[in-house]
Specification:
It is built from 8 helices and 11 strands. It is of the alpha+beta class. It has a 5-stranded antiparallel β-sheet, with helices on both faces. A two-stranded antiparallel ribbon has the order 3-6. It is globular and about 55 Å long. It starts with 13 loop residues before the first helix and ends in a 14-residue tail after the last helix.
């Protein structure tokens, strides 16, 4: 399979999955989405700086661009989208108060939440998705029915359910390099996450405050694009560890098309955002001025 350039295809089942994302309805059994490529190259592909990428036009059921899209790599805090999915699937009350403990501290698990802090499950989910709060994500997994091992088992079961064939999870924060997935896997995760209203809301919120003791603590979004009025982002997540590089996934709307963008291992703090802008500019300048290609004839 050629991992470079433009690819278009009729994707079996993908259009239904994208429509379900717009409905933003949680629950039910997710059907695996199998990405297939027609292998038609474009002379004007976007000049991306990310090592692996996938751009999926879900509205017209076509893969617009891919680079190493079937290779599993560390995904850092993109993991938290899967954590959020299984937490929501478990149906635990979002208003239940949970305490951050020393168990949530862990090596390399930086956080503004000190042990002893008590927040609701919904607040922890909010800051985990919006601000990539590691102790919040770990506390959510630790308080999953059956504890952390059951949470990780549910994450891998959900990956299989979604058809994420190259994905593997070992913990809920994304700090482990053993949490891996391919861009194709993550496109399916993004579309599944976009069906859940709370994940859509929390991941795209620009600011959020929680009360910790006697003071209010303010959090911002790790993705600067959510505050831009010219972007309509439906769900997103950023990630970073040294082995994964800078990562960004999102489902957005560009010229009335639902587009899933996966960018992995971007070098430099601002490269992933710059790549997202390059993709949008490329689509607006080229693809959206061309008629939608007809599916190949069957002979």
């Amino acid at each position: 399979m050629n991992h470079f350039g433009l690819r278009t295809t009729a994707l079996a089942g993908l259009l239904l999955a994208a429509a379900a994302s717009h409905a933003a309805i949680s629950g039910g059994t997710a059907l695996p989405v199998h990405l297939k490529y027609a292998g038609r190259a474009s002379p004007a592909a976007p000049a991306l700086r990310s090592s692996a990428a996938l751009v999926l036009d879900a509205t017209h059921s076509s893969v617009l661009y891919s680079r190493h899209s079937d290779v599993a790599v560390p995904i850092a805090s993109i993991t938290k989208l899967m954590t959020a999915l299984v937490i929501m699937d478990a149906g635990q009350p979002l208003d239940e108060q949970l305490e951050i403990t020393a168990e949530d501290r862990g090596p390399r698990r930086g956080s503004r939440l000190a042990p002893g802090t008590t927040l609701s499950r919904g607040e922890l989910l909010h800051v985990a998705l919006m601000s990539s709060e590691n102790r919040a994500a770990h506390a959510l997994g630790r308080n999953y029915p059956g504890g952390l091992p059951a949470c990780v088992e549910a994450m891998n079961a959900k990956a299989r359910e979604l058809g994420m064939t190259n994905a593997r999870f070992v913990e809920p924060t994304g700090l482990s390099v053993e949490n891996v997935a391919s861009p194709e896997d993550l496109s399916k995760l993004v579309m599944a996450a976009a069906k859940v209203p709370q994940i859509r809301e929390y991941s795209t919120d620009t600011r959020f405050e929680v009360r910790v003791g006697r003071r209010m603590m303010r959090y911002g979004n790790t993705d600067s694009l959510v505050s831009r009025p010219d972007w309509k982002i439906e769900v997103q997540k950023t990630g970073y560890i040294s082995r994964a590089g800078r990562c960004l996934v999102m489902q957005t709307v560009i010229e009335e098309r639902t587009v899933v963008i996966v960018l992995l291992n971007s070098f430099g703090k601002h490269t992933r955002v710059a790549d997202a802008r390059r993709i949008r500019k490329w689509m607006e300048a080229t693809l959206l001025t061309q008629p939608t290609p007809a599916p190949p004839a069957i002979t």
